[in-house]
Every structure is written in C-alpha cells, then in structure tokens.
C-alpha cells in the first residue's frame, strides 16, 4: 500500500466517526510525507492543525494506521505543504476513494466557515426531523426574533451539522450583509486558550460580538471547560440582548450535559429545543435517492433497498455506503449489481453483531455522564453519581434481563433490594419525563453502536 493509499484509508475511517465540519477543519490538506520502518510522518497545513491532530486525534490515527499496517508503531507530525493525490482509474474502488471524493466536495467559506453544499434544498425531511427542520427554517427567515436560542440535539450522523449550516447558508443568501459564523465548540475552546496565552482576550471578545448569527456545533464539548464556558456565557448574553441569533447543537439535551454551568444550561433551555431521531425506512430511501441525484448516479432499486434495510441509525453511514458505490460506478462506468454492492459494503454492513455486556453498559453510562466506571461502582451517595448508577442498574435489568442479585453484586456487592429500588424508580420516572427518555435513548445508542 502506497503512502497516499494508506492515508486515504485512514481518512475514510476517521470520517465515519466525526462530523463533516470537523473532518474538513482538521484533516483537509494533510498527508503522509514519509514512512520509514515503524515511523510515519504526517504533514499538516499549519501549526494549529498540527497541534490539534497530535492532541485530539493522535491516538485514533495511530490505532488505524497500525491496523492497516502492523509495522507502524509511531506517528509524528510536522507543518508543511500537503498535496492530496487523486487516485488513478486503475485503483480498485475502496474506502480510500471515499475520503478522496469527499475532500473534493469541501469548499469552506473562510469568513463564515460554512460549506455551501449544506442547504435546506438537499436536506431530506421526514417524521424524525420535522420539528428541528421547521424551527431551523423559521430561524433562517427571521434570525434573532424566533426560537432564540435554537438548540438541536440528536445522535451521531443524523444531520445536525447539515441543518445548522443550512441556517447559516440561507441567512447569507437572503441577507448577505449579516455576519454569520459557524464554529465547532472545540475550535471555540482553542480560540479561548490562544487568546489567554497571547493576552488577546479583549480582541477575542470583540470579534465574536460583531456576529449576527452565531452557530456553535457540539456544545457538549464545553463541559468541564470553565474558562471557555465563562467566555461563551458573556458572548451569549451580549448577542442575545442585541437580538442576534444563536444556534446550538449537541448529542444530548442541555439537562444531560455534565459539568455544564447552571447559568449556561438555563440559557440553552430558554429558547427552542428540538431533537432529531432515527430516520424511518421511507426516509432512508428518500435520502439515498436524493444523494444519488447529487452525485449524478443511478443505482438499482434492490441495491438502494439493501442499503436502507441494513443501515438504519446513521445518515452519515448511508452516505458512506453511497460513496463507495459511486466510486465503483465512476471507475467501472456501470452501476453495481446487488452482489457487487454486498461485496463492496461488507465491511460497513456485515460487521460482527455487537454483543452487549454489563461492562459495555457501565462504560456507556459513565461516558455519557462524564464519570469513571469506578464512580458508578463506588458507595458514593453524591447526586451526580447516584442518578447514573440507578440508570445503569435499570439498563442491566431491561436490556440484559440480569437478575437483581447479579446487579447488586456487579455494583460492589450491594443488596438486591437496592437494584430493585433503582429499577422501579427509573421505570416510574420514565412515565412522566420526556427528558429522561431522551437520555436513556442516547445512552442506548452508544451501547448498541459502540
């Protein structure tokens, strides 16, 4: 495998696990510039991207590289001019082409950080996203005066970033004079850190207070970052008082974001909260057909049916499957048959069935509430631990049908009556709490997709 093929394979796997916006922000114009024995050298376009790749994605990159080439034991990064190579037609269609095809679609506006391909016109609406779509459309037509802030949440790969950027692109189209800014929360945090380091906090504040529509993606990553939360709180208040629009997204509702300052949580809950669920079969087919038209390809109905039936919980994976088939069609100049499609998509669709274990449930609950597993298993009576512990016990009972004595033993030798109490308490609360239902559904998504 050449350096170019190796890196494209890495990019394709990374792309399936992060938002398109983050993928474009941190991985565009990167490449492997040397591979000697056990060490790989990756170039980044600037020092900021280099630092981010090392600190945020370093472990994932090394793990993927090692899985692709067992000799790789170390990855180093440097700043340098990167040039992505376009694959020759002789190459067999593979995941590497998916990454390459996606890169060609990115044309990020440097001023707004918006990708023009994310619009309302190509956002497929179904029962699972009608409310957030309607709210987003209303916001784009009258920013600052309806649903402010707009808070959209849902699982990975369900279209949150698309919807947020569609708002920005629509506002920019209708009122070009308005200053729109889309930014992932991690990049906002990095900006705060840089401003503090360079003693430019006032300049940082001034820059954000000139914005008419501020779109912050993945706000759950603000959790635990006190200085970032403080700066965003002041920015939020300033923009809100001036009737400037604020749009936020997260993988969970505000109440479920751990280590989030109460004053920020109350601001987030002061506007419109809308969740995106899972697309039904008909909507998945509609998405596939819409994306096929965008790519100017036509796939047989049985192939579309196969994809829609086997990929049910992630729109990004639907697109990933479509990209593989699109690459094949463009290289072979013919549509793939069902058998060829099954072969091309076997790694994506026919992965081994995910086994749910008590450990996986504990890991998912702990991660969701920003705790350690040992916290759940401890005897602590702190509210921020007791509640997640009860939810973990509930999930062990409901999803694994574990006995109450087993659950008690799993949690540090507690009496079975503790497990019974926890399960019954959550069951009762679920009857009257929509937010608790949302939290448990989001945790289950982590359990069954992890």
TrEMBL record:
As for subcellular location, the record says: Cytoplasm
Residue stretches making up the Chromosomal replication initiator DnaA C-terminal domain: 357-426
Gene Ontology terms for molecular function: ATP binding; DNA replication origin binding; lipid binding
> Which SUPFAM superfamilies does the record match to this protein?
P-loop containing nucleoside triphosphate hydrolases (SSF52540), TrpR-like (SSF48295)
Residues that hold ATP according to the record: 157, 159-161
Predominant location: cytoplasm
Q: Name any Gene Ontology BP term.
A: regulation of DNA replication
InterPro entries in the record: AAA+_ATPase, Chromosome_initiator_DnaA, Chromosome_initiator_DnaA-like, DnaA_C, DnaA_dom, DnaA_N_dom, DnaA_N_sf, Hda_lid
GO CC, any one term:
cytoplasm
Q: Note down the stretches annotated as region Domain I, interacts with DnaA modulators.
A: 1-92
Q: Where is this region: Domain III, AAA+ region?
A: 113-329
Q: Where is this region: Domain IV, binds dsDNA?
A: 330-450
Can you tell me where the transmembrane regions are?
A: none
Note the SMART domains from the entry. Answer: AAA, Bac_DnaA_C
Signal peptide positions are none
Q: Note the CDD domains from the entry.
A: AAA, Bac_DnaA_C
Which intervals hold domain AAA+ ATPase?
Answer: 146-277
Family of this protein: Belongs to the DnaA family.
The entry's function note states: Plays an essential role in the initiation and regulation of chromosomal replication. ATP-DnaA binds to the origin of replication (oriC) to initiate formation of the DNA replication initiation complex once per cell cycle. Binds the DnaA box (a 9 base pair repeat at the origin) and separates the double-stranded (ds)DNA. Forms a right-handed helical filament on oriC DNA; dsDNA binds to the exterior of the filament while single-stranded (ss)DNA is stabiized in the filament's interior.
Domains: what does the record tell us? Domain I is involved in oligomerization and binding regulators, domain II is flexibile and of varying length in different bacteria, domain III forms the AAA+ region, while domain IV binds dsDNA.
What quaternary structure, including any partners, is listed in this protein's UniProt entry?
Oligomerizes as a right-handed, spiral filament on DNA at oriC.
> What NCBIfam families does the database record attribute to this sequence?
DnaA
PANTHER family from the UniProt entry: CHROMOSOMAL REPLICATION INITIATOR PROTEIN DNAA
Q: What is this protein called?
A: Chromosomal replication initiator protein DnaA
Q: Source species, please?
A: Candidatus Nealsonbacteria bacterium CG_4_8_14_3_um_filter_37_36
